[in-house]
Write a structure and sequence with these properties.
The complex is a heterodimer of chains A (200) and B (224). Chain A is 77% helix and 0% strand. Chain A is mostly helical and 200 residues long. The chains are: A mainly alpha (200), B mainly alpha (224).
Chain lengths: 200, 224
């Protein structure tokens, strides 16, 4: 039980230290000091800095995926489901900018394993986007990588805002990320219309 | 072809500046290779020296530190990429043709230089402000190329100002995914997908699909 809360404290520390000084400059001492645990305890729980970062990344992205999926599932038409899922994502990220930075920007500095883990996390959103193929007339004939690319567009727009330290503004990006999600499936005219109509 | 550069056989006869030039390129090449295998963070000056077969003293003759070497490698990547884009740029070409030609040239460049591709698109965005700035400036050039699609709208639609940036991120994400999956040599096969995603906000679905099919005819297939 104590070990468990020490683990949680170390994960919190990885998020906070990563956001303030960056993954590259983060040391084990930073983590143990911030979490008030000993080095011995750290090594009982994690193999090293990268392992701790990956665990923090997984904890953050699991929670994000749960929130997004729950909001998405509550919608009716695909554009409304997409809107609800994206709104939940933006709100969750705006509530915790340090976590947002780790989940969408800093993983890149954490080496090849973290980079591959991030790709796999993004792929888990694919079923939500693939619904666009069924929703859109002729959606089955769209390029094979359409959903991957649409996910990349959303992650890119959010990442840009985080790099510019505008995490608080993220909820205002909803129209832009929704348009980017819809446009490859239903085209610009229908996407612009759905962005307007689903806001009501 | 920096990627495969070897020490010239008749090295004794080369004048000094030329040797230095190739040592520099070998170090930039070694930096890119090391970044692509272990990441920029874990790369050391010793890795660069070993990879380039130069002494530590030679490294410090040409670069201030690890970041300086990384920055130089990024400058070289950016210059190469911009050179390819300039080569296909023409104000007389239809916009969609230019997007296709630029994307094809860019994918060929990345496929031919896998270590630099990974360094520039995976490591640089996350490795400090100087490298990020070079990466971002390259992206701005591509973004302004894409945004010219707005000049000739097919219909009067309120396209968000972020549409070009979003499309570029979409293409980038697909490319990075393939690089991380070890499929860098096959990047040119992504051309039809990339033509579609970058033109659809401006041309609409039917025309973007037509452009994508055109691109497919010109796309090399490596099978599998």
């Amino acid at each position: 039980m104590i070990l468990r809360s020490q683990r949680e404290r170390l994960l919190d520390a990885a998020v906070r230290v990563g956001a303030t000084k960056g993954y590259g400059a983060m040391t084990l001492t930073d983590l143990t000091r911030e979490a008030s645990v000993s080095r011995t305890t750290f090594y009982e729980l994690f193999k090293g800095k990268e392992d701790c970062f990956l665990a923090a990344y997984d904890r953050a992205t699991e929670a994000l995926l749960r929130r997004v999926t729950a909001a998405f599932d509550a919608g009716d038409s695909w554009p409304r489901r997409a809107r609800a899922g994206l709104a939940a994502l933006l709100e969750a990220l705006a509530e915790d900018p340090d976590m947002a930075r780790m989940a969408l920007v800093d993983f890149g500095a954490a080496g090849p394993t973290a980079q591959r883990r991030h790709r796999a996390t993004l792929q888990r959103l694919t079923p939500l986007f693939d619904e666009g193929r069924d929703y859109a007339p002729g959606g089955r004939s769209l390029p094979a990588n359409t959903s991957r690319m649409a996910i990349g567009a959303v992650a890119g727009l959010i990442g840009d805002a985080l790099i510019e330290e505008r995490a608080g503004d993220l909820p205002n990006l909803l129209s832009d990320v929704l348009f980017a999600t819809l446009v490859p499936y239903i085209g610009p005219a229908a996407a612009a219309r759905e962005v307007r109509e689903t806001s009501r | 072809m920096i990627e495969e550069e070897r020490l010239p056989a008749d090295i004794e006869q080369l004048s000094e500046p030329l040797v230095e030039h190739s040592q520099r390129e070998r170090m930039l090449n070694a930096m890119a290779r090391s970044c692509s295998t272990k990441g920029y963070g874990a790369t050391t000056i010793a890795d660069v020296c070993a990879g380039a077969r130069v002494s530590r003293a030679t490294f410090y003759d040409l670069f201030k530190d690890k970041e300086d070497c990384f920055h130089a490698a990024m400058e070289l990547s950016l210059a190469d990429a911009m050179g390819r884009i300039v080569a296909v740029y023409s104000p007389d070409k239809p916009w969609a043709t230019m997007v296709r030609d630029a994307a094809a040239a860019f994918l060929e460049l990345l496929a031919g230089r896998p270590a630099f591709a990974r360094m520039a698109l995976v490591e640089a965005p996350a490795s400090g402000e100087r490298a990020f700035e070079l990466y971002a400036s390259g992206k701005r050039v591509l973004q302004s190329l894409l945004e010219r699609g707005r000049d000739d709208p097919v219909e009067e639609i309120a396209i968000p100002s972020s549409a070009g940036r979003a499309a570029l991120s979409a293409a980038e994400s697909l490319i990075v995914g393939q690089i991380l999956a070890g499929n860098t040599a096959r990047l040119p096969e992504l051309l039809p997908d990339i033509v579609y995603i970058t033109t659809v906000p401006y041309l609409g679905r039917e025309e973007a699909l037509r452009q994508s099919r055109e691109a497919e005819k010109a796309t090399p297939r490596m099978g599998g």
